Amino acid sequence: MSSITSRPTVISASHLQKRYGDFTAVKDISFDVPAGESFGLLGPNGAGKSTTMRMIGGVSQRSGGNLTIMGLDPEEHGPEVRAHLGVVPQQDNLDEEITVRDNLIMYGRYFGLTRSYLKPKSEELLEFAQLADKADNRVSALSGGMKRRLTIARSLVNDPKILLLDEPTTGLDPQARHILWDRLFRLKERGVTLILTTHYMDEAEQLCDRLIVVDKGEIMAEGSPSQLIREYSTREVLELRFGTDRNATVGQELQGIGDRLETLPDRVLIYADNGEAALEQVTGRGLNPITSLVRRSSLEDVFLRLTGRSLVE
Description:
Blueprint (H helix, E strand, L loop, with lengths): L8 E12 L2 E12 L3 E5 L6 H8 L7 E6 L8 H5 L2 E4 L11 H11 L4 H14 L15 H12 L6 E5 L7 H16 L3 E6 L2 H7 L2 E6 L2 E6 L1 H8 L3 E6 L2 H4 L3 H4 L5 E4 L4 E5 L2 H10 L6 E6 L2 H9 L6
Parallel strand pairs: 3-7, 3-8, 5-6, 6-7
Antiparallel strand pairs: 1-2, 1-4, 8-9, 10-12, 10-13, 11-12
């Protein structure tokens, strides 16, 4: 079967809820993930993404709704579910004082895996993570990007069918992020199901076959990145800066240009299918921005349209 939608469902959430006292972190979330898909939860910090991931991982009990992982309820069948999961937490929790190789071997022992299995497996994972030359180094000597790759390698020691990644590239420089993306692409090619949370629009566009946009514990939209951009935005965006004092007042003078106008504290956005034509209209009205930029629409624009605020505030 070639299409993702025809593959068996490995994660099914129906009206999922999580409450902490009077605070509701996840209000009513439903989604299904077929095997082999790269599925994303996109939203700002505090949207309920990590809480949803903890419920999927079986480390946080839900307050309502239904959830199954490979047909099993993670609350009732925690060990069986976790045996098929790899987890990459938001913060690296490696043992800094032992070697890179020993981090993999010790983690594998928690799954009851034998040393005879783990020795070649650790070498395979170090090659995959491009860390073979660091195998005998202490983790404390690694860069942030290397630690992140080691955390991913460690999560694969039990050959999981599903990999949960919570904000996988937060804090990494662009080069380290792209190396990590390449490793995740390779896992997807092997048939591993990827579930990731992120507030980076470019990461979601690069990695996700499909995603849900989450805000305040609720799903605002669902679809592939390209579908969401087509549905909620225009082909291009014209970004204009008139200066801090002028941005807020120039809106009236820009009315009628493009399909939609958004005024942010630092810039004005004009949504149009042809950004250059929109810019010509702006200058034709005698308005001269300090800077101007024409770019393609992104998931950031989708989120702004749906919630009235930026993904990263």
